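Hi support team,

I submitted a single chain yesterday and got back a structure, but I'm not sure I'm reading the token output correctly. Could someone confirm the output below corresponds to the sequence I sent? I've pasted both exactly as they appear in my results page.

Thanks,
R.
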Amino acid sequence: MIERGLLAGAAGIVVLDGVTYLDELIRARPPSQLPSTVVQKLAANVGFSALASEEGDAAKNRRSGAGSLMGYAVGLGAAVAHATVRPATRWLPWPLAGILLGGATLVVSEGMATKLGATDWGTWTPAEWLSDIIPRTFYGLTVAYVLERLIAGDQFATER
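Hi R., thanks for writing in. Yes, this is the structure output for that exact sequence:
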């Protein structure tokens, strides 16, 4: 299950990033600074001063890189978790499972950011909500679809 989850998660992350970058291109919006802010808040909570309080471009770049890596970890981890529970939830159509997965990643990631004080959901505009909901929905649908295809491929291989 871990291998399938990692493969499906990698596909989901590519789609999430692609949808996000397309949004930035179309609306000429800047990339989100929220992942960097979350890294800074987490680092401050655990006493890692290099990421928490350093100033300048080097520190900003480190936080940006750490934020991106944290996003990959969440995307891959959520996909592995989905792959692990999917056999018990096969009665759920894959598109619905994908939408639920995308929603779960939104709640976990943004919920953590809110708890850390890096953002406040109550102040988000509809455009900001859509900038998060749409890529995560595509992520979840992609993970669910790829996982379904991998499972179907395994079934085909064992039937031969």
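A quick pointer for reading it: Residues 8 and 143 are 5 Å apart (CA to CA). Let us know if anything else looks off.

Best,
Support desk
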